[in-house]
Design goal:
alpha+beta, Aminopeptidase, seven-stranded mixed β-sheet, globular
Length: 161
């Protein structure tokens, strides 16, 4: 599977993909105007702050998704270097190995400690990340729950060194 990660320069491309992503996973990030506007306060920071990197995921010349990485972490005791803020593969391109190949590229490119988070309600994301991380680390990762009730997050903490 040939996957290419390229920094996104075109803000509108990312905004369009994020609208589809948030319609699926978290409609609170969309305006009430028919879900056509993004309510994501960190959006512009991905072109300003050097530790926030927006990538588009290309497969055979087609943009199939995006991933946003940064150095913002919640578990301060683990001291992760990187985290994935958002990760999206368009539904049409899922279950083809694209997500796994993308995650592996990121883990190889940014060696160090990682923190990956999902809402407790996003069961598909839990399955995906547990599978990917367990495979990549040979099961050598920690999983913790951060927060309570509706705002709780499941987090995987691991090292790629």
């Amino acid at each position: 599977m040939q996957i290419t990660l390229t920094k996104i320069e075109d803000k509108q491309l990312l905004k369009t993909m994020m609208l589809g992503y948030f319609k699926e996973v978290d409609q609170s990030k969309l305006s009430i105007n028919n879900f056509k506007e993004l309510n994501y306060p960190y959006f512009d920071l991905y072109w300003i702050e050097p530790d926030r990197i927006p990538f588009k995921i290309d497969c055979k010349g087609v943009v199939v998704g995006f991933v946003l990485i940064n150095d913002y972490v919640l578990d301060l005791s683990f001291k992760a270097d990187k985290s994935i803020a958002e990760f999206y593969v368009k539904p049409k391109y899922r279950r083809l190995g694209i997500g796994k190949a993308t995650a592996y590229q990121l883990f190889k490119k940014y060696k160090g400690k990682w923190e990956i988070r999902q809402k407790t309600t996003n069961k598909n994301a839990h399955f995906f990340w547990r599978s990917i991380i367990a495979d990549y680390t040979n099961g050598n990762y920690i999983e913790v729950i951060h927060g309570e009730k509706e705002t709780a997050l499941i987090m995987q903490l691991f090292s790629t060194i």
